[in-house]
Amino acid sequence: MTPASVQTAQSASHPEPTTAGDDPVLELEGLVMHFGPVRAVDGVSLRIRKGQVTALVGESGSGKSTVGRCIVRLVEPTDGAVRLGGTDVTHLSRKELRQHRRDVSIVFQDPAGSLDPRMLVGEVVGEPLRLQATRLNRRERSERIQESLRRVGLRPEVAERYPHELSGGQRQRVSLARALMSEPSLLVADEPTSALDVSVQAAVLNLLADLQRDIGFACLFITHDLSAVEYLADEIAVMYLGQLVEVGSRGEIFAHPRHPYTQALLSAAPVADPDKQRARTPVLLGDDLPSAMDPPSGCRFHTRCPVAVPRCAEEVPVLRSVGDGGTVACHLVEQDGTGPDIRTDAAPAATTTATSTTSTSTSTSTSTSESLT
Ligand code: SF4
């Protein structure tokens, strides 16, 4: 299986760069997760290095959240391997998972649903300390909780309130405080802002960027919001129907997307300049995302790809390194990275369904942010 990892390029719009070390914090090798006949994830290989933010993007139903759940072992993978800091955690026992859970945390999309409404905020944030049986006395515990709350921009008094007494943005800050309490080496952030009001999405996104820069944890940022990706990510992994189709540095993917699906996603992403936005014509893809119970033969994207050739329906494209960085799974991309660009080369045929199906906007300090898929 080809490891999907490339070097990072930083741009001026990005927050202060973090120092991504060479050591992989996370390695996925041929990860497979099937739920009965549903092939949610089908052979995903990915590496995330220390201090690196990797965005996992794709439409709803592409399997990206399932990848996150496999990493934190909320579900046990059907096949393949999940390695955290070099340790294989794919099939750890419940007891062994305790250490694993210290090394990796997850923040969910909906803070209201992920916080126990019967627990005070202080109990919620301090729960990792209890689960890990740390030997802190009551005062030390309280100080750690208050420090965590301050770190995410909440007053210490919030510890005495219940989650339902807080706003959505405050609840997501509590989720972040809890997730970072155990000082994990990897944070899985699963659509952390998409359930929030537009007015607070940017603040939470900025907080996540600040925390990541200050603490230096690696992050798998699962999202369909490409503007947030442009702001936060070092590397981007694009997923389609349970498989990775392209991985590359943020700079490379935004400047030269090689896979037709990546090109379609980017063509639907809004830009901050209204004149440029008006001048753009998003690529529209025919048909909906096919069923993960019966994925298309060959390239899974061939039923929607405007430049597909007969070979695409028969032969599975391998994710391979091309050009001077990045990996892509497409028969038509040459070894030097050149290939078709459906934004200019192809007039899409049956244009019944746009890649962009929903849209919520968020202003960040650097860009306008809207949902894409
Ligand atoms: Fe399109 Fe064929 Fe490339 Fe798949 S392999 S993305 S169908 S051109």
Would you give an account of this structure?
By secondary structure, this protein is of the alpha/beta class. The protein has a domain at 24-254: 3-Layer(aba) Sandwich (Rossmann fold), CATH 3.40.50. The protein is 28% helix and 21% strand. It has 11 helices and 16 strands. It has helices at residues 64-71, 97-103, 111-114, 121-131, 138-151, 168-181, 198-215, 226-232, 250-255, 260-268, 274-279; strands at residues 24-35, 38-49, 53-57, 79-84, 87-88, 104-107, 186-190, 218-223, 235-240, 243-249, 284-285, 320-321, 327-328, 353-354, 361-363, 368-370. The strands form 4 sheets. Strands 6-7-8-3-9-10-13-12 form an 8-stranded mixed sheet, sandwiched between helices. Strands 2-1-4-5 form a 4-stranded antiparallel sheet, with helices on one face. A hairpin with a 4-residue loop joins β15 and β16 (368-370). It starts with 23 loop residues before the first strand and ends with a strand. Iron/sulfur cluster (SF4) is lined by residues 259-260, 299, 301-302, 305, 307-308, 312, 317, 330-332. The site of iron/sulfur cluster has 13 residues, from loops.
How would you briefly describe this protein structure?
By secondary structure, the chain is α/β, with parallel strands linked by helices. It contains 11 helices and 16 strands. The chain has a domain at 24-254: Rossmann fold.
Largest sheet: 8 strands, mixed
Radius of gyration over all CA atoms, rounded: 21 Å
CATH topology name of the domain at 24-254, in short, is Rossmann fold
Specify the CATH class of the domain at 24-254: Alpha Beta
Task: Classify the beta-strand content into a percent band.
Answer: 15-25%
Distance between the termini: 28 Å
Q: Helical residue percent?
A: 25-40%
- The arrangement of helices and strands along the chain is EEEHEEHEHHHHEHEHEEHHHEEEEEE
**CATH architecture annotation of the domain at 24-254:** 3-Layer(aba) Sandwich
The count of β-strands is 16
What's the tally of helices? Answer: 11
